[in-house]
Amino acid sequence: MCGIVGYVGNKPVVDILVDGLEQLEYRGYDSSGIAVKCSDKIEIYKAEGKLCNLREELSSHAYEISKATVGIGHIRWATHGAPSVVNAHPHTCNCGKLVLVHNGIIENYKELKAELEAKGCKFRSQTDTETVAHLIANIYGEVKDLTKAVHLAAKKIEGAYALCIMHNDEPDKIVATKRNAPLVIGLGEGEYYIASDVPAFIKHTKQAIYLGDNQVATITKSSIKIENENMLEISPKVELLPWEPVALSKMGYKHFMLKEIHEQPDIIRNILVGKIKTSDNNIVLDEVNLTKDTLKNLNRIQIIACGTSLHAAMVGKYIIEDFCKIPVDIEASSEYIYRNTVTDKHTLVIGVSQSGETADTLTAIKQSKARGSHILIITNRPDSAMAREADSLLSVNAGIEVSVAATKSYIAQLTSFYLLALYMAEIKGTMTSDNLKKIKSEMLLLPQKIEQILAHKEEIQKCARKYANTRDFIYIARGINYPTALEGALKLKEISYINATGYPAGELKHGPIAMLDETMPVLSILMNGSVYEKLLSNSEEAKARNARMIALTNSTDEKLNDLFDSIIRVPDVMELLSPLIAMIPLQLIAYYIAEFLGKDVDQPRNLAKSVTVE
Ligand code: F6R
Fold it and tell me: Strands 566-569, 548-553: parallel, antiparallel or unpaired by DSSP?
């Protein structure tokens, strides 16, 4: 969370910084700010809220800052201290000569703050970051060398950080460092870009250095020097980024989320191309380095993820156990890392992450890697920190997802899980060829079926509006669609702020049924298959408590009209693939309710797309 940028060169820096921050808005939008070197001092400009507020603030200082060619910037997702101007970065020290921006959390900031206050430092904000500004400035007072001061300060800091620092006594220089937070340096002609993520500068350069943990980079417009934690200079690896600048356009859609929902049929087509040639061919998954022997020696699989990716993992568990007969555990990364997890070289650990940067998942992956497990990463970002830890990398290729609420990356993760499960089943010989063939041919039809749903989105919009003015919402399902219920509820709560919950329908009678009355919408994900009749009975139980009943179904049974107040029908699909179909109307319901309620669909309050703090 939070995004940082920096630039040293000959070009006017303000637009470079603000455009860079715009590309990082997915990391937070509570406040933003920049610091630029003007004629004789460093000037700081900040604004609360979205980046447009900073742009407005800067417009009234256009003249003073127009000549600046060195600067740093920040976009914030608040951890310590409310979203406000005083807590916005850049932060400075008492003399105002040192400024810095920070992404991460300084865990020992209270102890450091107490020490610094005892030395006379006056704090203005409630942030952990300000401590680092005072700390480095304090050390700088003794050593008079910014790079050295940063090295020495880093030894005292506990936690995760990426930092860009400027000092007025060493003008035209930025010092950058990181530990357990991303930082990448773009190399131009007589200029350098620094950012939390590549999109911030990809339109300027494709050459980059990924800074390693505890390394310190000292950057001027004509030089870059990188030192390891022992202050010894190292030669960094310069990488050619595989990225093209992407014009992030809504393509006529009102929101990125709606556009991304509509991209899903093509995303599935792109993922499947070359991997399922025809239903008679074996799955081609060259990226996965799991040999027959490794698979034979596996006694379990653990899948670790957060949020929407965790819901994809739950579907993954269901199908891997069904197709491959290997026991699978799934766990939220944030829980996994704080207990004595049992993993070894006979465990395959799968990390699932859209961003590939989620701090909890990254830590969990590193822990299991250290215990000798094979690490398979399913991510939308092959250039991410998690991808760099992978023994096998399954890139889901959903393209940049701008909307904070994940939609297309979820469908891409699910599709990748199906490919992986089929691939492993083929190697292990755990499925009949008839079954394999049937699933593969049905998978090839998925894009068309999703297109059919999207073609009737107005009906879903009508249904969504009928239930928009509710305080609570319950989603029920069983079996393979229980994760669909959880994900449908998550989508609704994150963009409409309605208290939505997903339940395994059989659990309703063990407590949640007490909440039902004539005000409560209950959406039943009633897909044909092994649990259809059971779920129908659970829906009857809810109806008997006067709940407002909605069915999402591929059944053509006319009798459903008596039980349900609203019915959303989707094309028929085999039960094992139904999560890929059932999710689409749920994404649309969440979208249309939030849009109807006038919420900020693409940037819902309190959220960030990349969660780089534990
Ligand atoms: C919900 C959402 C989040 C993420 C979660 C994990 O729409 O996007 O719940 O799924 O923060 O992020 P990744 O997948 O990047 O690890």
Answer: parallel
What is the distance between the alpha carbons of residues 527 and 193, in angstroms, rounded to a whole number? 51
pLDDT for res 320: 97
Residues 51/45, Cβ–Cβ less than 8 Å: no
H/E element holding 455? helix 433-455
Cβ–ligand 1 contact at 307 (below 6 Å): yes
DSSP string, 246-298: -----TT-SSHHHHHHHTHHHHHHHHHTTTSSSTTSPPP-TT----HHHHHH-
Band (pLDDT 50/70/90 cuts) for residue 45 is: very high
In the chain the domains, ranked by start, together with CATH numbers, are: 3-250 (3.60.20.10), 260-453 (3.40.50.10490), 456-596 (3.40.50.10490)
* pTM score: 0.87
Each residue of 514-536: pLDDT tens digit? Answer: 999 999 999 999 999 999 999 99
Mutate to test the pocket of ligand 1, among 197, 309, 612 (most ligand atoms within 8 A of CB): 309
Q: In this structure, what token pair is assigned to residue 78? A: 């608040």
| Dist CA 133 CA 136 (whole Å) | 5
Q: Pick the closest to residue 487 from 577, 590, 335 (CA basis).
A: 590
Q: Is 609 a catalytic residue?
A: yes
Please write the tens of the pLDDT for every residue from 477-502: 999 999 999 999 999 999 999 999 99
- Identity (one letter) of the amino acid at 16? I
From the list 405, 409, 403, the residue with the least C-alpha distance to 395 is 409
358 lines ligand 1 (CB under 6 A): yes
pLDDT of residue 311: 98
Q: Is the pLDDT of residue 294 over 90?
A: no
Residue 242 is predicted with a pLDDT of 75
3-class DSSP state for residue 375? strand
Options 2, 306, 324, 463, the catalytic residue: 2
Q: What are phi and psi of 228, to 5 degrees?
A: -80, 180
Residue-by-residue DSSP string for 427-454:
HHT-S-HHHHHHHHHHHHHHHHHHHHHH
Interatomic CA distance for residues 577 and 480, integer angstroms = 9
DSSP labels for 137-167?
A: HHHHHHH--HHHHHHHHHHH--EEEEEEEEE
For residue range 570-609, what is the model confidence (pLDDT) as tens digits? 999 999 999 999 999 999 999 999 999 999 999 999 888 8
Q: Is 407 helix (H, G, I), strand (E, B) or coil?
A: coil
Percent of residues, the chain, with pLDDT higher than 70: 99
Instruction: Give dist(CA 199, CA 197) in Å, integer.
Output: 6
Check pocket membership of 309 for ligand 1, CB cut-off 6 A.
yes
Beta bridge partners of 499: 472
Does the C-beta of 380 come closer than 6 Å to ligand 1? no
**Max alpha carbon distance in the chain (Å)?**
81
